[in-house]
Amino acid sequence: MKLLKAMVTVAGMTGLSRVIGFVRDVMTAAILGAGPLADAFFVALKLPNFFRHVTAEGAFGVSFVPIYSETLQRDGENAAAAFAGEAFGVMFAIIGIFSIVMIAAMPWVIYLIAPGFEAGSQQYQAAVEMTRITFPYLLLMSLCALVGGMLNAHDKFAPFAAAPIFFNLCQIIALLCAVWFKTPGHALSWGIALAGVVQLAWLWWFLRRYKIHLPMVRPRLTADVKKLFKLMGPGAIGAGIIQINLFIDIVIASFLATGAISALYYADRLFQLPLGVVGIAVGTALLPMLTRALAAGQTHEARNLFNRALEYCLILTVPAAVALMVVPGKLIGVLFERGAFEHADTLRSAPALACLSLGLPAFIAVKILSTAYWSRQDTMTPVKIAVMMAGFNVVVAVIMTQFIDVAGLALATGLSGWAQALLLWRGLSGQTEMTLDERLKKNTLRIVLSAALMGAYLLAVAHFLNPWFAGTTIEKLLALGVLCGGGGFIYFAAAQILGVVRLQDLQKYLVKKQKMAPASVLPDNLQDMEAEGQE
């Protein structure tokens, strides 16, 4: 199935990026730690990323790709290229001016987003300086989103999926060169700015390689660009609400004991591994494919894409969520606890990771369900739901931090994810293309049971391996390897016995698909998978 191949491509590149990202995070924890300077840097990191998620990966991404894909399907490459060039010019002008204004106003901006930082303090000044360095990353990544969206619409998924690798490599290089900068935080900030340049150059090279035309034109509000902005309006609000929730977490955390922002960051880094690999893979692959299927009136293909995306994601995210909830302290301790990152930081980050992971399957479902709306160019419904979830998240966060510190912020985020998924699902009721097929219904229960067996193994073995986790670095790594390797084996063995997936069939399926074999030669299990999606 084309969706599976695309997801594997994106997930593979994203997975490699996450592995390199873990090296970066381990180095960051050891060199930067979780103190006041770290809190200042993470604010500098999150501010441009806030607007990037709203523009590049939020409103723009979900609005541009469906219009570009539909134009490509209906009117051909020349019309699609003209639209892309117009969008590029307008985006460069608007975000360029916005970035200049924000850099000039940064002292007031930092005061608003981190009011717990005392004005005039070293922490406050560092946050202002570092955020001014990182903010141009917003413009660069917004342009990357446009170029990457064009590549994805042409089914060239690997380059955009590989781009984050360069971000992590630039951060690692910056840490290695930290002695030549004012602080490690300043070195990391310059690494972010450099990463934006490298990523844009990488994607632009592939645009030329695949002979995908992107004309450079002056900014003009053409009919297609106006349509893009019309769709972006609700999308920007929706993506903005999500990011505002994250910034509300920072505001609340800035009033907690020093290190709360850092504890939330390190918990989020582990949480983002499965969320990023699976969520990015399915979102990147599904949106252009689902858009084209709906534009061509292929109802059965659209339903099959929707169900298989949910199924593949549940297979991967449910066990990941169980593992992160059951042994969060072991994971954070082995990966981060060294140098400036102390055991007390592990004890503070672990409950936050467990609470975040509660909502992992829900966040993946939100990604798929939202894609179903975006592919129909409906950006308003997800916005209404996101607005409701914003209020829910704030109320729960304010209440829970009184009892469980920074973990209360994570718990509010996890619970709001489930509420959002439920409301999005209810909004899709009655649409034939988005109904669940029988295979997905059966496999969901089997996946949960397999993950529960894995969780029992993790609890028992983690207790048995406690002396190793308290030993040397080698002993800790061996213990983590036994824990994770054994847990993965238990889960996939149970999933295979219960009939969720047969690895030998999956291997044959992928090989034969690459050879363009007819459906009649597919293994029976995989024939059933596709057939049930067409019911």
> Uncertain segments of ≥5 residues (pLDDT<50)?
512-535
Structure class: mainly alpha
Number of helices: 21
Output the radius of gyration: 23 Å
Order of helices and strands: HHHHHHHHHHHHHHHHHHHHH
Biggest β-sheet description: none
Number of domains: 1
Summarize the structure in words:
The protein is built from 21 helices and no strands. With 535 residues, it is mostly helical. The protein has one domain. The protein is globular and about 65 Å long.
Topology:
Blueprint lengths: L1 H30 L4 H40 L1 H28 L1 H8 L8 H13 L2 H17 L4 H19 L7 H26 L13 H31 L6 H36 L3 H28 L1 H9 L6 H15 L2 H16 L4 H25 L2 H21 L10 H27 L1 H4 L3 H25 L5 H12 L9 H10 L2
Helix pairs in contact: 1-7, 1-10, 2-3, 2-5, 2-6, 2-8, 2-9, 2-10, 3-6, 4-5, 5-8, 6-8, 7-8, 9-15, 10-11, 10-13, 10-14, 11-13, 11-14, 11-17, 11-21, 12-13, 13-16, 14-16, 15-16, 17-19
Keywords summarizing the entry:
about 80% helix; globular; mainly alpha; about 525 residues; 21 helices
Short account of what is shown:
By secondary structure, the protein is an all-alpha fold. It has one domain (2-436). It is 82% helix and 0% strand.
